[in-house]
Amino acid sequence: MNLEEKVIKSDPKYHGSIIDVEKQTVELPNGQQASRDIVHHAKAVAALVITNNNKMIMETQWRAAVQSETLEIPAGKVDARDKNNSSEDAMIRELNEEIRYHANTLKHLTGFYTSIGFSDEYMDLYLATDLEPVSDELPRDKGEYLRIKEYSLSEAKALLDHGEIKDAKTAMAILYWELLSK
C-alpha cells in the first residue's frame, strides 16, 4: 500500500520571521480527505562542541515557547548570512556568535527532522573540536542572552538522567558523544 498523501489545497495562515504556517487539505491513501497544519522552518544546525580538555560546551538561555531556561548545545538557523545557504558556514557563524569559538575541525555527524509530526525543520548535527577563541566576534542575535558552561561526559549524562536537559538535539548530542567515547 502506498502511504503517500496528496496535497489538494494549501492555505497559508501565517508568515513570520522564522516560520511560515499553512493548513493543507490532503487526500489520504484510502481516498478520504484530512487536514494538516504544517510549520515551515529554515534549515537548522547544531554542534556537539568538545573542548581541548574533553568537555562539552552548553549554553543556558530563555525559551519563550516553554517559558523556561533551557540547557542546550549551540544551534541556529541557516540564513542569508551564510554562503550559498551552507549548513557548515551557518555552524561556523553560530559558534562565533554564541560561544565565541572557532572550530578548526568541524565534522558532520548526522541530520534529522526536529519535530516531524508538524514541521519540516531539518537540522544538521556537527562535532566541533580543536577550538580556538575567535579574534573577531560577530554580534549575537537580538534578544539572545546566554550563559556558557563546560561539562564532562559524566556531568552531561547526569543532567540528562535527572531531567535537567529537555532539549532533543542536546540529548542526542550527549548520547552521540557517549557512543564516540567508546
From TrEMBL:
- Using the record's annotation, list all stretches that form the Nudix hydrolase domain: 40-173
Checking CDD domains in the record gives: NUDIX_ADPRase_Nudt5_UGPPase_Nudt14
Point out the signal peptide segment.
none
| Record-level Gene Ontology MF annotations | hydrolase activity
Question: In the Enzyme Commission scheme, what number(s) does this protein have?
Answer: 3.6.-.-
Q: Give the domain of life.
A: Bacteria
- Which keywords accompany this UniProt record? Hydrolase
Q: Which SUPFAM superfamilies match?
A: Nudix
Q: What are the names of the required cofactors?
A: Mg(2+)
InterPro entries (UniProt xref): NUDIX_hydrolase-like_dom_sf, NUDIX_hydrolase_dom
Name of the protein this chain belongs to? NUDIX hydrolase
Naturally occurring in which organism (per UniProt): Nicoliella lavandulae
